[in-house]
Amino acid sequence: MTDRRSRPTGRALTVDLWHTLAYLEPEEEERYMREQVDLAASLLRRAPPRSASPSAPDPRRAFEAVYGEAVAASQQGRSVTPSAQIEEAARRLGGTVDPAEYLDGLARLVATMAFRPAPGALAALRSARESGWACAVISNTVGEPGATLRPVLHQMGYDDVVDAYVFSDEQRWTKPAPEIFAEALRRVGAEPARSVHVGDGWVDIEGARRAGYRAAVLFTGLQRYGERYRRLFLPDGWEAPETSYRIGSWAELPPLLERLR
């Protein structure tokens, strides 16, 4: 395992998770997001009512509305956790629900999915660390808690090259808020003006800009999205934000980092 006590250099490479370090094939991503809603709707149908309103929406529609609002909030830099989402959907239905049951269901769902590591990412991060870059992951975890993704990343070997994981459900902020970038840099002892961020969309590029990073790199190698994901998380133009740096594969990153030192 990488020595996490290596001498700090003040430089950090921060990296997005979804469609950057790990991904699902589009049809699997579509099924995954559909089953998230199925799980929530099932729990909400069993939620004991406090004072159910005759005008209360269908559980599926209620949760989808809350989830969409959580995504919109995340695009403004505000974190709405999965627990808060299921509780709000239950409130709108006039009932109550144990969020722990929803989180347990999400953990089981994540464990069944065929997540894949981005080709070449592990080697590129290892090269970065050997060159003196601290490495951190910054992920907007709107649909599932970061705790459910940690075992996936561990199995892929990322724990050996990542110094810190910052998941938005464990923070008040999401990308593009500069605060979540600052938190990652604080954990690894790095300065924004000497740091680089890599991600696949607007929230990554804009967030790094707001945080004062040396550079923001658009990763285009895994821009294959399920329809629900694209509709919710990628408004028109968000897949191709304006930036001076783009890579289509992880093999392109080490020489770029040499230029950006």
Describe this structure in words.
The protein starts with 11 loop residues before the first strand and ends with a helix. The chain has helices at 26-45, 59-75, 82-92, 99-112, 121-130, 146-155, 178-188, 202-210, 227-233, 253-260, and strands spanning 12-15, 22-23, 116-117, 134-139, 164-167, 196-199, 215-219, 245-247. Strands 5-4-1-6-7-8 form a six-stranded parallel β-sheet, with helices on both faces. The chain contains ten helices and eight strands. The protein is of the alpha/beta class and 261 residues long. It has two domains: 12-25 and 115-260, Rossmann fold; 27-112, no CATH class.
Spatial order of the strands in the main sheet? 5-4-1-6-7-8
How would you sum up the global shape? elongated
Highest CATH level, the class of the largest domain: Alpha Beta
CATH architecture of the largest domain: 3-Layer(aba) Sandwich
Q: Tell me the series of helices and strands, N- to C-terminal.
A: EEHHHHEHEHEHEHEHEH
Number of domains: 2
Number of H/I helices: 10
- Roughly what fraction of the amino acids lie in strands? 5-15%
Percent in helix: 40-55%
